[in-house]
Write a structure and sequence with these properties.
With 374 residues, the chain is mostly beta strands. The chain is built from three helices and 19 strands. It folds into two domains: 33-162; 173-366, Ferric Hydroxamate Uptake Protein, Chain A, domain 1 (Beta Complex), CATH 2.170.130.
């Protein structure tokens, strides 16, 4: 029986932990540890996180910026006193400059999340030391941008710059609407208001140009859906694409996460880093997701949704819809675009970049919501 103990904070910090399935602990996620003015976190607290295999969340402020460190006990090899103080400022170019107070490596990797007071249009960013890139930065957040990346404290000063959008994404970003990978029980944008007409031969209906599977018009220049029954796979022709799976937005919403799922969340939020995979001509995103996850030993679960004529991905890596709030679930992105139809209707092309991302806010926190910046 799982027991969750509270985290009691006073001037002397005491960390209480719970045992999840006998090998994973958690602090009380409603009470993170406030970083003191000098930034110093004592060795005893780091040791407690390590020995109890807990997740420690530490919050601080630098001027108008809030920042948050998430430390996984499983990543700590040798506990030591560390300095989590961070100085953050915006450059004249609009980038974010970061200066750590830590003067040597932590001895483990930790996730640093920086909360901006603005919404970046970029879908990803990169951290640089000078002109040399050293870390990829994921972007989450619904109304304002949150920058998330892992580091070990060995780099003292760096700058975060938003990645440039492809030209076609710049043209469509302000007007496109997307459909998160939601079930009919959690309709998005009124999807369930338009049901297909029995016996209808034309794939179009009169309701706003939706097809008989409730798909909104596909933005100009984007691939049209290919129905699974029309799919023709040629195993004589092979191509490559990249696949990645991540859930970093969960780390910004740990207070909403089902405690039973804490042990499923990897430090940094990356389940599968960008990997080049081979696929056959005619295969869909869903086909390749199933094969890649089977090869990598990553659990997946999906169901068929007839009214959308598509598979619905319920869970990946044992993280399911609603596991991190009522608006949470999985979405997929191809070449920077969140398609407005199911992954089993998206036919892959050579060189495609596919990203599966977990959302806690119907896609708004990962750049895939209905209104950009809204």
């Amino acid at each position: 029986m799982k027991k969750i103990l509270s985290l009691l904070l006073a001037f002397t910090i005491m960390l209480s932990l719970c045992a999840c399935q006998g090998n994973f602990g958690s602090v009380n996620l409603n009470e993170s540890v406030e970083i003191p003015e000098n930034g110093i976190i004592k060795e005893s607290l780091i040791q407690q996180i390590r020995s109890e295999n807990a997740i420690g969340v530490f919050t601080g402020k630098s001027g108008d910026y809030k920042y948050e460190w998430t430390i996984f006990g499983s990543d700590i090899k040798d506990a030591a006193e560390i300095n989590l103080g961070v100085q953050i400022r915006k450059t004249t170019e609009g980038n974010i400059q970061v200066l750590l107070q830590q003067v040597k490596a932590f001895g483990f990797s930790a996730l640093l999340s920086i909360y901006l007071n603005e919404q970046w249009t970029a879908q990803s960013a990169t951290a640089y030391v000078g002109d040399k890139a050293f870390a990829s930065v994921s972007i989450t957040g619904s109304k304002t941008t949150i920058l998330n990346f892992t580091l070990d404290g060995s780099v003292e000063s760096f700058e975060i710059r938003p990645d440039a959008l492809p030209e076609d994404e710049k043209e469509t970003q302000a007007t496109e609407t997307t459909t998160p990978n939601q079930t009919p029980s959690t309709p998005v944008g009124g999807q369930d208001d338009y049901l297909s007409t029995p016996g209808q031969s034309d794939n179009k209906v009169q309701n706003g140009g939706k097809d008989k599977y409730n798909t909104d018009p596909v933005p100009e220049g984007k691939p049209k859906p290919v129905e699974p029954e029309d799919q023709e796979v040629d195993k004589g022709k092979t191509f490559t694409c990249t696949f990645s799976i991540e859930c970093s937005t969960i780390l910004n919403n740990l207070d909403q996460l089902d405690p039973d799922k804490l042990e499923m969340v990897p430090s940094g939020g990356v389940i599968l880093g960008r990997t080049t995979v081979t696929f056959y001509e005619g295969e869909s995103v869903f086909d390749v997701l199933q094969r890649v996850c089977k090869e990598k030993g990553i659990h997946t679960e999906a169901s068929w949704t007839p009214i959308y004529n598509s598979a619905y991905v319920e869970g990946i890596h044992n993280l399911y819809e609603f596991d991190c709030g009522a608006l949470s679930g999985w979405m997929y992105k191809v070449n920077g675009w969140y398609p407005n139809y199911g992954s089993s209707r998206y036919q892959l092309k050579d060189g495609d970049a596919v990203e599966w991302r977990f959302t806690c806010d119907l896609g708004n926190d990962i750049g895939g919501g209905y209104a950009v910046g809204g």
